[in-house]
Each structure stands twice: as structure tokens, then as C-alpha cells.
Design the sequence.
């Protein structure tokens, strides 16, 4: 059972270009989370998706950022018109459904991340 | 709004020592707390997960405790080795009302000197 797969591992974009980051969750996981880690900062939650639904995007910047998790294929984090401040490591995590009725939330498993550099 | 603080920010100790990393969180309404390890330029590796109803978890030389009411957790590393050098992150999963993701501390950068 492969872990969470993110690609590319490293991505270089010029200012104004678009960046597309992909995340394939672990087999059987239907919940995906995206986090951003800026230099010298902790990981910050961006968005939480289930298949074909955005559940919580409270951590997403209001402009230029979008995310999707289609019925088929990986989750995509898209950054339009990138700026230097977007340079960061972007991590994806996946988890299975929490156990219904037990109040126990299962752990999330993280990918290796995509390191975006905007030049 | 949940905030997670980790102390110390950096720690350097000789090989073989036992050490304690600290994590505190401001809102005790959590589902669980998780300790991760992050190596330079790499992803996160989950070390230990403690559910809110639990007091501690152990894995090998690692032991994590949770005092939910006081908003504290510690990660104890026994007989440290150079291979333990990494950044250790603490993260909590808060109960409803806030963002659905984990809230992370900034980490403790640990160096074990050979």
C-alpha cells in the first residue's frame, strides 16, 4: 500500500506563471488536506477536501489559489500568477473516514511535499 | 483560535542523553495530538498519535504524554542517537468550530552530537 504521493517533488516557476501541485492519497482514503510551510514557519492548514467537495477552505488565500479533488484522479492545488511569496513547501495529507459514533479521529498520513520556488 | 507552542526551538545534546521536548496548546478541546519528525528537505513522518482519552503512547525509545486539561504534551527520547537529529513537530486536531486541519507548532530543531 503506497503512501501519499505528491508530484512534482520540486517545481520552479517564474513570476506570473501557474503552478499545479498533485496529490494522490493513500488507497482507501477519501479525505485530503493541503498544508503550506513557509521558510522558518510552521505548517499552516490550507484546505480540506473530500471527493468532489471542498469541506473547509478557511486557510486558503482568497485570490489565485484553488483546490480540487475530482471523482477520479489526484487532488490538485493550483496557484495562478505565482509571486515570490508563494515559494514554500506544500504538503498533502490523507486520512480515512473517522470512525462514526466513536468520536475518534484517525491520524493523517503526509506526503513528501512539493517544494515550489518562484524566481 | 488554537495555537501550538513548542519549547525549546532548538536543542543540541551529546549522544546517549535522554531528552524532553515540550508542546503546549491553548484550547484543550482536542480530538488528538500527534508528534511528527521532519528531516531537512523531506516530508513528515508520524511518530506517535495520542487520542484525547489517552495519557501516553510509547514506540521504542519514544514516549509521548498528554495532559489535555493543562494543554501540554511532552515527547521523551531515551538514549538519543545521531540519527535522531531532525525537527520534531507537535500538532493537534481541534474539536469543531475551527479549521478542519491540524494545528502545528513551529517545531524543535534537535541535533544529537556524536
Sequence:
Amino acid at each position: 500500500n503506497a503512501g501519499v504521493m505528491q508530484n512534482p517533488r520540486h517545481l520552479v516557476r517564474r513570476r506570473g506563471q501557474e503552478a499545479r501541485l498533485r496529490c494522490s492519497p493513500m488507497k482507501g482514503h477519501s479525505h485530503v488536506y493541503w498544508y503550506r510551510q513557509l521558510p522558518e514557519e510552521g505548517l499552516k492548514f490550507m484546505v480540506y477536501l473530500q471527493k468532489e467537495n471542498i469541506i473547509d477552505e478557511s486557510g486558503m488565500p482568497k485570490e489565485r489559489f484553488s483546490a480540487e479533488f475530482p471523482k477520479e484522479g489526484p487532488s490538485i492545488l493550483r496557484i495562478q500568477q505565482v509571486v515570490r511569496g508563494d515559494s514554500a513547501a506544500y504538503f498533502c495529507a490523507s486520512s480515512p473516514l473517522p470512525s462514526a459514533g466513536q468520536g475518534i479521529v484517525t491520524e493523517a498520513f503526509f506526503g513528501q511535499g512539493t517544494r515550489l520556488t518562484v524566481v | 483560535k488554537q495555537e501550538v507552542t513548542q519549547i525549546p526551538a532548538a536543542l543540541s545534546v551529546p549522544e546517549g542523553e535522554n531528552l524532553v521536548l515540550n508542546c503546549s496548546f491553548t484550547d484543550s478541546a482536542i480530538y488528538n495530538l500527534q508528534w511528527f519528525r521532519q528531516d531537512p528537505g523531506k516530508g513528515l513522518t508520524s511518530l506517535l498519535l495520542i487520542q484525547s482519552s489517552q495519557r501516553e503512547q510509547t514506540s521504542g525509545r519514544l514516549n509521548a504524554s498528554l495532559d489535555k486539561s493543562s494543554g501540554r504534551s511532552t515527547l521523551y527520547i531515551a538514549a538519543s542517537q545521531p540519527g535522531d537529529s531532525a525537527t520534531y513537530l507537535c500538532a493537534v486536531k481541534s474539536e469543531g468550530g475551527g479549521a478542519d486541519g491540524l494545528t502545528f507548532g513551529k517545531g524543535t530543531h534537535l541535533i544529537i552530537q556524536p
